[in-house]
Amino acid sequence: MPETSVAHFYDELADDYHLIYPDWNASIRRQGDALDALIGQDRAAVLDCSCGIGTQAIGLAMRGHRVIGTDLSPRAAARAAREAARRSLSLRTAVADMRRLPFPDGRFDTVVCADNALPHLLTEQDAHAALAEMHRVLRPSGLLLVSTRPYDDLVRDRPASTPPQVHHVGDGERTVTFQLWHWHDDGEHYDLEHFQLLPAGGEWRVQVRRTTYWALGTPSLWRRAWRSAFRDCVSSAW
C-alpha cells in the first residue's frame, strides 16, 4: 500500500482521533507518566516520530521533556501542535516519514514510535530503514521506545474484528468505534477497516477509513532492531 494511503487514513481520522479514547486527556497523562518513567531522566530531548495528534508527545511535554513530534499525516501533526499550544506547552511538529527523518545524527536522547505505527511499514526493507533512522538520530546509549499490538497472539488467532468501544462524549451522546480485519493469505498482513459512528442531530454519522498493517510479532521486530544496530531497546505497550 502506498505511503500516501497511510497519510490519508490519518488525515481523515485527525479531527476525531481523540474519540477512540474514553478520556483522551487522561490517556495523555497516563502515557506521558509511563514513558517518563522509562526515560528516567529530566528534560530529555525526545523525538516522537509517529506523533499523531500528540497523545504521547503532549504527555511527555507535560513532564518537562523537550519534545519534537513528526508524523506522515499533515493534519495530525498540525493538530498535535494546536493541542499542545492550547495547554501552553512547547511542542514543535513537522511532517516526516520515519524512514527518512530530517534530523542530524545523535540529536535525541529518546525516540518514541508508539500506537502501532511501525507495522504500517509493510516490508522488511522499510521496517529496517525506519529502525536504522531511529538509531541514527539517537545519541550514544540513547533509548528507543516502541509499542505495537500483541501480534504474537493475533497472528495465531487471526481475529476478524475488534469489540465495539462505546464512549460517552457529553449531553447523553455516545460514539462507537470498531474495526474489521481482513487477513492476507501470507497470514502476516491484514487490511483494516476502521468504523466510527458519531452522533449527528439524533442520527448516526458513519466514518469508514481503510489502511493495511504488517503484523510484526515480537521476535520479528527485535530481529529487525538488532540488524539496525540496536543493542539496548525497551518496548512498552498500553
UniProtKB/TrEMBL annotation:
This is Class I SAM-dependent methyltransferase. Its EC number is 2.1.1.-. It is an enzyme of class 2 (transferase). SUPFAM superfamilies: S-adenosyl-L-methionine-dependent methyltransferases. GO terms for molecular function: methyltransferase activity. It comes from Streptomyces sanglieri. GO terms for biological process: methylation. The keyword Transferase applies. Pfam families: Methyltransf_25. Keywords: Methyltransferase, Transferase. Residues 46-142 form the Methyltransferase domain.
